[in-house]
Design a protein that fits this description.
Number of domains: 1
Strand order of the largest sheet: 1-2
Bound molecules: zinc ion
Largest sheet: 2 strands, antiparallel
Number of helices: 5
Helix content: 25-40%
Radius of gyration: 16 Å
Distance between the termini: 47 Å
Structural class: alpha+beta
């Protein structure tokens, strides 16, 4: 018995090249991707690169944070801030962070990047990998 999936699964999408992109937005992104990858602005599926932006209300009680990176209008809708989603070191849930460009570059310069989880009130310093990812997002 073989049941063919008609819909492209998130894992398929990730395999097609969004995996690296996802990793560069933080370890918690993999968790968020389980709930689906559609653009918060135009509501169409994202099959190539994405950016994470300000959470946008897409349905009552439901927020999406993914936006098409390669569509100017979607990118614009994602806002000015740089968002990053590490996995909380304590409760292991995605912990959404956002920084202005100025704040982030100052924090990176002084190696003082810290994350905070609103779920469990945990704070922890960025890892070397986080710092590399954030520097890349800042240049983007
Ligand atoms: Zn879009
Ligand atoms: Zn936590």
């Amino acid at each position: 018995m073989s049941v063919k999936k008609s819909k492209t699964s998130i894992l398929d999408l990730l395999a097609k090249g969004t995996r690296m992109n996802a990793a560069s937005h933080g370890s918690g992104v993999q968790e968020l991707l389980r709930s689906g990858l559609s653009c918060a602005n135009c509501r169409e599926p994202i099959t190539d690169e994405f950016v994470i932006g300000e959470p946008m209300l897409v349905a009552p009680g439901k927020y999406d944070v993914f936006f098409h990176k390669n569509r100017p209008e979607c990118r614009k809708a994602s806002g000015e801030k740089i968002a990053y989603v590490p996995l909380c070191t304590n409760c292991k849930t995605p912990a959404y962070q956002s920084f202005t460009r100025e704040t982030l570059s100052a924090l990176l310069r002084s190696s003082a990047v810290k994350f905070h989880c609103t779920q469990c009130d945990n704070s922890w310093p960025a890892t070397v990998e986080d710092v590399a990812n954030l520097s890349r997002l800042l240049k983007d």
